Amino acid sequence: MTALTGSTGSPGTLQATDSTVPIPMVAERPAHTATANLTRLLCIAVAAAAGIFGLLSLPSFLAQAWPNSALAAAAWAASFGLPIALGLSARWGSARIRRGIVAAEALSFVGILGFWLIVRGTPLPAGADIPWVITFTGVPCVAVAVFAQPRLVWAFTVLTSTLSGFVRFTTSAEANPALIGLADGLYSLLLVSVFVAFTLAARRASARVDEATLLTRQAEAHRAARVARRQERLSIDALVHDSVISTLLMAGLGRTPPSVVSGHASKTLTQLDALRSPPPQPVLLVSDAARRIGTLAQQIAPDAVVRVDNPARAGQEAGIERTVPSAAVTAILGAVGEALRNSVNSAAGQDPARPVHRRVTMLSTTDGFQVTVSDDGVGFDPALVPPERLGIAESILGRMTRLPDGAAHVRSTPGRGTDVVVAWAPDREPANRTPIRPMPPPSVEPVETPSVEPHPSVEPVETPTFLSRSLDLTTPMARLILALFVFVHGLLAVINIVPGRPLALMLGAYLAIVLSAITLMRPMNRPFPRTQVAVALTLSGVGAILMFGYLPAHDEAPFAHWHLGAITLILVVLAARGQIRSAWMGYAVLALLTVGWAVETGQSAMVGVDLVSRHAGTLLAGSLFVVGLGRSERDLRVLTQDDLARARQDATTVAAIRERKAQLRRVNALARPTLLRLAEPHALTAEERAQCLLVEASLRDAIRGRCLFVPPVIHAVQAARQRGVEVTVLDDSADTPPEQLETLARTVADVLDTIEHGRVTVRVLPARRADVATVVIESGAPCILTVGPDGTLRAPE
User: Fold this and answer.
1) Among positive and negative, which fits the CA dihedral 519, 525, 528, 531?
2) How far is 139 from 23, CA to CA, in rounded Å?
3) For residue 59, what are the contacts with CB-CB under 8 A and spacing of at least 6?
4) Which of 166, 593, 702, 755 sits between 20 and 30 A of 696, alpha carbons compared?
5) pTM for the model
6) Three-state DSSP class for 489?
7) Is the CATH number 3.30.70 carried by domain 705-797?
8) Chain centroid to CA 186: how far?
9) What dotted CATH number matches 279-449?
């Protein structure tokens, strides 16, 4: 016996290999992240806003030039050139370079404000007393918000808004400059806070997207690895069942000539060695595949009639040469071989002398390649086949289901023979969802196949979170900004009360605008309702009409037209909620109302254009921000899909290689020494045949009772079989073994050690059951024992 098995061939010397080691590469962060995309987008948005406000401030700059024109030009160039440089560096510059540009921009802006306070702290001419430098306070604040921590961002925003108010106070030519400076500083704080809040919200959202994407990537990679391990394991199991177990069974039963056993053993060893590397030929000619199938049929069932059909030329042999993937040919050969072996062993039933006619029909079409194995034997009821019988479930149906574009069907009725159809049908739905198109010979009825988890590449995965939908205006900061909106515009309205004008109109306008702003404060977890958009625009329009009815012509007060800025801010928020078209439609109506008011009050239409155009830059900057955010989302979605696909592919490849190596180590340790000895033709002794059957039984345990293929159970099963006990070990846990597996293994081993004769069936139950296993003992008085999670045994009541 030792000459047959070798030192490593004992079935009890190998523990099941746990190949569920996590794939290390899934922890890597993707190359393209939402944070990186958003940072680039915001840098470009800051540059665009700087360009817009730089052009708008140019008339004021030329009118307010400093005595030193070179210094003035340098200040203006620094104010707008640094943000533009930031945008240009968005794609090629490192994070350190961009941070340096932002720091220089922030310091230069504060320096310029300080210069206005210290050197030019004198009133400017009436009508031109708004310094150009305070017209773009939001640009450096948003730039800082792209990179800095929130506390530093808000501190910088408050500082620059306060300095802007002081600059306005020192340069104002109005009668009450302190009040003007206060109002200007508060309005600047409100306007800048809106864009800073959007920027910080987008940063938080991008961080959540990155975290969710990373978790999704890890989950997808682990899932792909789990599926790959399962598919690889099932493929190896099918080979073991078809070749290794069949060879050992032939040798152990002693009914096959030694030369035939030797040939099967040599072929099996060649197949095991071939699994160490991919097939050398990616495709095979159909004629080669047909020849291989014919040779296989002659080896297993010499009496079978082999025929090749071509429906394009009925009654003739196939004349159209096509190719079939080598993986498909390998799977079909394995399934056909198993179908023929089942027919040879079982089709005659209990009467070996009963004549059985077998035929193997091959069909090659533009839709693929199909093989049908038929016999007119005793047949069977597929529904009554025990789940532990692997021939049909794994070697035929399971093998073809795992093959891409593969399919298999079995039809059998007691007394009416059996038909097995296996096919490779590309450009079709997967086999587990769409039946094979009927082809002659006879039609078949599907049999339920074992549940196999689909490959992850067929399931789309969406980006976990959308950035634009994360701009939630129900946060405490959003409520604070709304309160500032209400307070600032209330202050501006009070400052600009016109004696003798109907105060009710101004109060009604203020309330309508405030209500319009409040309607926008809702969570962004679904598309913004059109009715609410209409309400916001209507209220803003009513507020504008009432204010134009209240304002006299030629009102030169600094904030007389405060409602234009307030409505523009509402439109900016509306654009940020994804309603850009509605926002610009509202702005167009506002422009028409402003021009109409100017003409109605005897002024030039250009007066209205000048009033409303001052706020176009604000809405344009907000719109560009949202448009860029949407493009960034689309790009990120594509990049995320690609990254997830790469993660799946990497995980699948690594897991399949690891699982294949683990399974081959197990099979080689259990069976290779015996196969090597069987490859040398010689007559086996009774002891050698018994050892072959023991090894064959151990291999079946490794396939059917995977989670219990551990040393305590392996040794106990082997000892029980040597005592003459028939032992069957089954695992129905579906790759979810019990948590206390060691305890279960010891309990099962203890029970097996007490059985001296008869039959024992150990079954691990599916997960989430109250009990983890059952032990059916048919020795003397039959009994059924259940095993609890803690390993306790009890008989059912």
Assistant:
1) negative
2) 45
3) none
4) 755
5) 0.57
6) helix
7) no
8) 46
9) 3.30.565.10
